[in-house]
Specification:
heterodimer; A: about 230 residues; mainly alpha; 7 helices; B: about 500 residues; mainly beta; four-stranded antiparallel beta sheet; 2 helices; about 0% helix; globular
């Protein structure tokens, strides 16, 4: 999991006035929490593309959540499309806050967690309290969380938070390439009639990471074939 | 054809006669009546008239390592309650039959033992989409019994099958043209004719697929429901509901279609559907936005316009980004009377009067202590768990599952509720179930369990209640627990 000593960006996380235990970040701001939720949701939408047909109900609910966040952020004026060049760096920072968001906090017992308040604009967000998730890191219950995080570093560089409508539109080819690498199914990305495909449009070209993965795969295959 | 598949022999509890001990759960003072938000239930048992639940049997492997295929995915009693069917992720169906009551042991009730096991669905591969079709049995629904055989419908994501389960306990002996071991007799040696006679044999239960209803669903089937006319049934997937005739497999009628022309506009899916128990033209379906639509098939062929629309207005003070997700209805069931219906969303069960669309008549909190954990439950996907609910035979009590192998019972008359646990520790024969309590914060009392210690992998999604008696079946991952009320 994440190293305890992982540094946060001090300028953006200025609201942790109460400091907190050394090495343990304090309560993230509402904006940060909301952004983390958005990122988590986008990752979930991409991860639901598996060998078995994705659960449509789950995908629709997640997409609606993303839409809600997007609407609120648009009203706040904080909605922006992350430039591809920055995509490599910024998401990782936001990923840290996802971990903060869901960190088990035994020291903070008794406090409510992650209360994302009424999204009506103009209403000052309540100061969010820290989160005693209490889901012990060693438990199986965090399996999904672990899986999400593992995949994040593999897949997120290619993704930008595009508009929600595009989540349901045609799948970008770079997504297919990445998918082929992950699942070993070359050209097997499914979009049947009526089946929505979930991927944000990539304003960016296929990432170099993706290409290098493919390159490695080819290289590996070459070695195997030669032996 | 009797399929293969592991029979669920279990650590069945032997039923013993004798005076039963006093109820352990009556030590604490009862909680205040009414709906209690927060921790689950008080000390007094629910279910009307001092119902006390006791362990009866448990089926399934004790092994800590659970094979994915053994996870139970549906449980259903038949109309008489004598048969109990389970389906699992491996596509198998196991049917238990209740043994006849033993007159010499008046305090004991009939046990459920394996009656038939067969492979209902196999994994398939959709070549067009390059996707696997899971063999997991999503739902089983029994047909009312009309002759000696039993019929049930079982469905996976795409295909519904009608199975006939029949008994064979006699065989013919004394054929003229063949020996007892099957060898053909030489015709020239036959000097006399005899009439074959039926002789008893060991009971054999055979399951054979009689109808296969396929290729009618683009999306995943979540519900099937047999109509009260006993001739038709409906099947519902995420976006469409089809009406079938039990005799006709190559044709079904689409009666609800909520697929938008432009899939990008999709914001709501169908989550469950059921026929009214008495009015064969009426059915309901629930949605991921927490709404229920009641449709009358007499009004039009395509029931896209509902007759009634049930939705509770949202409480603005509790709104969050997760409000919609937790309002998504995972199950909808009519009461036996047909006057009410019950819906299950993530945190509560609601009882609706069919004559009142504006709001439910009752709301019961299942595990309100999870409301502050929604973000974490969203992260690990537990927030998408689909819990089922069921009615007691007299409609006076309702039941639903929760996490940590807890399940909740609500008595609608006394307004009392109780949290019980399905676990091997409480599996002494006829042992009374001790009510459990979840501690939400502050000091944890003895015997309470804190929210942080709940095991979210142990979820009770599927439960069933005997249609007439107080016998319940609770599926806990790969184990099936059967509980009965204490014989008064």
């Amino acid at each position: 999991m994440f190293a305890r000593g992982l540094k946060r960006k001090s300028s953006e996380d200025a609201e942790d006035a109460d400091g907190g235990v050394a090495g343990l970040p304090a309560a993230p701001s509402y904006t940060l929490q909301r952004q983390s939720l958005l990122d988590m949701s986008l990752v979930k939408l991409q991860l639901c593309h598996m060998l078995v047909e994705p659960n449509l109900c789950r995908s629709v609910l997640i997409a609606n959540t993303v839409r809600q966040i997007q609407e609120e952020m648009t009203q706040d004026g904080t909605w922006r499309v992350v430039a591809p060049q920055a995509a490599g760096r910024a998401p990782l920072d936001r990923l840290v806050s996802t971990e903060i968001l869901c960190r088990s906090g035994r020291e903070q017992e008794g406090e409510g967690d992650c209360p994302l308040p009424d999204p009506a604009p103009g209403q000052a967000p309540r100061r969010p309290q820290s989160s005693p998730w209490g889901l012990d890191g060693s438990r199986e219950g965090r399996g999904g969380f672990q899986k999400s995080l593992d995949h994040i570093f593999e897949t997120l560089e290619n993704k930008t938070p595009g508009s929600v409508e595009e989540l349901f539109s045609d799948v970008d080819s770079s997504y297919y390439d990445l998918d082929a690498v992950l699942t070993g199914m070359v050209g097997g990305a499914p979009t049947g009639p009526g089946l929505p495909a979930f991927a944000p449009t990539a304003a960016a070209p296929p990432s170099s990471t993706c290409r290098s993965d493919l390159g490695e795969l080819e290289h590996t295959v070459e070695i195997l074939v030669e032996t | 054809m009797a399929g293969e598949g592991r029979a669920r022999g279990g650590a069945g509890a032997g039923l013993r006669a004798g005076v039963l001990g006093g109820g352990a759960g009556r030590e604490r003072a009862p909680d205040a009546p009414g709906v209690s938000a927060g921790a689950g239930g008080g000390g007094c048992p629910a279910g009307g008239n001092d119902l006390q639940w006791c362990f009866s049997q448990v089926k399934g492997a004790i092994d800590e390592d659970v094979a994915e295929a053994d996870i139970i995915s549906t449980v259903e009693f038949n109309y008489s309650g004598d048969l109990l069917a389970t389906g699992d992720k491996g596509g198998r169906v196991v049917i238990f039959q209740r043994e006849q009551e033993n007159k010499s042991r008046p305090h004991s009730r009939g046990e459920y033992n394996v009656y038939s096991t067969f492979q209902s669905h196999e994994p398939e591969f959709d070549y067009l989409k390059s996707l696997e079709i899971e063999e997991k049995i999503n739902k089983i629904r029994w047909l009312p019994q009309q002759n000696a055989a039993h019929f049930l419908l079982s469905t996976n994501d795409k295909t519904i099958k009608l199975w006939k389960i029949s008994e064979r306990d006699k065989r013919a002996e004394g054929y003229n043209l063949k020996d007892e071991d099957g060898r053909l007799r030489d015709p020239f040696r036959i000097t006399a004719l005899r009439v074959p006679i039926l002789k008893p044999m060991d009971l054999m239960v055979e399951a054979s697929p009689r109808r296969i209803f396929a290729n009618a669903h683009t999306y995943h089937i979540n519900s099937i429901s047999v109509n009260s006319d006993h001739e038709t049934y409906l099947s519902a997937d995420d976006l469409r509901i089809n009406l079938w005739h039990l005799e006709i497999t190559d044709r079904s009628f689409n009666i609800v279609d909520i697929k938008p022309v432009n899939m990008e506009e999709l914001t709501e899916v169908i989550t469950a559907a059921e026929f009214h128990p008495h009015q064969c033209n009426v059915f309901v379906y629930s949605s991921s936005k927490g709404t229920i639509r009641l449709c009358d098939m007499r009004s039009s062929a395509l029931c896209d316009r509902h007759s009634k629309f049930f939705e509770e207005p949202e409480d603005p003070s509790s709104r969050s980004f997760f409000s919609e997700i937790i309002s998504s209805i995972s199950d909808v069931r009519f009461s036996h009377s047909g006057r009410y219906m019950m819906t299950r969303d993530y945190l509560s069960v609601k009882v609706w009067d069919l004559n009142m669309e504006s709001r439910p008549v009752e709301t019961h909190q299942v595990h309100e202590y999870l409301r502050s954990k929604l973000c974490s439950l969203y992260e690990n996907d537990c927030i998408f768990d689909k819990f089922e609910c069921c009615w007691g035979g007299s409609d006076s009590a309702i039941m639903t599952g929760s996490y940590n192998n807890f399940f909740r019972m609500f008595d609608r008359n006394t307004r009392r509720d109780v949290t019980l646990e399905a676990s091997r520790e409480n599996s002494k024969p006829r042992a009374s179930l001790k009510p459990r309590k979840v501690c939400t914060g502050g000091k944890r009392k003895k015997d309470e369990i804190s929210v942080d210690s709940l095991d979210f992998n142990k979820k009770i999604l599927h439960t069933a209640w005997h249609p007439a008696e107080n016998i319940i079946a609770v599926a806990a991952t790969n184990n099936l627990y059967i509980f009965q009320d204490k014989v008064n």
